[in-house]
Amino acid sequence: MNDMTPPGSLSGVRADFPGLLTPQGERWHYLDTAATAQKPQAVIDAMSNALGRDYATVHRGVYARSANMTRAYEAARERVATFLGAQSANEIVFVRGATEGINLVAQSWGGANLQAGDRIMLSQLEHHSNIVPWQLIAQKTGAEIDVCPITDDGLIDLDWLEENLTTRHKMVALAHVSNVLGSILDAKRAAKAAHAVGAKLLLDGCQSAPRMRLAMEELDCDFFVFSAHKLYGPTGIGVVWAREELLNAMPPYQGGGAMIDRVTFEKSTYAPAPQRFEAGTPMIAEAVALHAAIDYTQNVAGEAGMEGLFAHESWLAAKAREEMGRMNSIRLLGPEKSAGIVSFVMEGVHPHDLGTILDEENVAIRAGHHCCQPLMDHLGVPATARASFGLYSDESDIEALMRGIERTQRIFG
Ligand code: PMP
């Protein structure tokens, strides 16, 4: 992206995504990138080559193809490390996705560090995958869960957090960006508050990794997790980042091949991190495709960097809010400044009905609770409609959305 490109249009990018056309070759207005992103041809090709021409196992083979694949798998780890501004590739654990990543931290770190009387701080807007793993480990250890409220405009209330964290809190686990409201957490401030009471901070980076510049040192969190499929990469792979020292102090999450040092029937010893947490044959082709996805995304971002993508998507979100704000029948949720995600409800129209009518117009939005039922309870709605943008979105997607919303209003009006 160059300086001349107006925010809200990254010309030419759509052609890289075969998934952005309907089977009839029409334009598909895909506004569900927060659920999962469409894949550029470069990622599809990387996956295809890794499963075809280049395929072999990693870490074990003595033949050249396996050695090459091992290099490619480890190069993907290096690539993720630079993307996150990590100190070393040893800080990068490959998992199946963010959900498995949070379960790994909850079971491994939580299992070793939580006990009865300890507390875990979550927030009202968390995704189920940053709630249920903590409930599971709380039940096992006797720890208890607290919930940080959100402000009226949908931000995690950091004033409340600072006032209510105590030395009994051992873990603070928060969404960096809300998948429903697009609200952005001041992660540094949350880290300061957590560390002031000796707690760890886990950031759920599912929605920030695809659209924000990330530097682990600056964020100052202890754990960061994300899924590749929201970052234009494949399903089936995600990342847990943590400092090496912290990872090496944690027990294994799963046992099996590749995570061991020495196995006897009496006792096994484990490999250091990150291998300690990667039991079994890993996601080989997926790691290679994730590498391609990061290369592609940063290449599109160009000199403006991830800040440019952020500006592009938040500009589109602001534009969508402005257009919808003119309609009396629409209630917008979440803060004015959001990271490319807009949730709303339409008076007298169930979000599922709206989603079905929009589908007839080749507009794909999300309708439902977005795996955030406690947030829905707080907002007093069973479901919301959500439009979310990606690097391939532009103003024509908003125009199509608005046409569909107006048609819906006529049908229900
Ligand atoms: N957290 C957030 C904020 C999300 O948006 C999602 C995906 N909707 C997840 C966690 C879970 O990610 P995954 O299903 O890829 O494991």
Q: CATH class of the largest domain, please?
A: Alpha Beta
CATH-defined topology of the largest domain:
Aspartate Aminotransferase, domain 2
- Sequence stretches where pLDDT stays below 50 over 5 or more residues: 1-5
Bound molecules: 4'-deoxy-4'-aminopyridoxal-5'-phosphate
Beta-strand segment tally: 15
Structural class computed from helices and strand pairing: alpha/beta
CATH superfamily of the largest domain: Type I PLP-dependent aspartate aminotransferase-like (Major domain)
Tell me the span between the first and last alpha carbons.
42 Å
Biggest sheet overview: 7 strands, mixed
Order of helices and strands: EHHEHEHEHEHEHEEHEEHHEEHEEHEH
Number of helices: 13
Q: Classify the oligomer.
A: single chain
Record keyword descriptors for this entry.
413 residues; alpha/beta; Aspartate Aminotransferase, domain 1; Aspartate Aminotransferase, domain 2; 2 domains; seven-stranded mixed β-sheet; four-stranded antiparallel β-sheet; 13 helices; disordered N terminus; binds 4'-deoxy-4'-aminopyridoxal-5'-phosphate
Detailed description of the structure:
38% of the residues lie in helices and 15% in strands. It is α/β, with parallel strands linked by helices and 413 residues long. It has a seven-stranded mixed β-sheet with strand order 2-8-7-6-5-3-4, with helices on both faces. A four-stranded antiparallel β-sheet has the order 11-12-15-14, with helices on one face. It folds into two domains: 11-39 and 305-412, Aspartate Aminotransferase, domain 1 (Alpha-Beta Complex), CATH 3.90.1150.10; 45-299, Type I PLP-dependent aspartate aminotransferase-like (Major domain) (Aspartate Aminotransferase, domain 2, 3-Layer(aba) Sandwich). It contains 13 helices and 15 strands. Residues 1-5 have low confidence and may be disordered. 4'-deoxy-4'-aminopyridoxal-5'-phosphate binds next to helix 3.
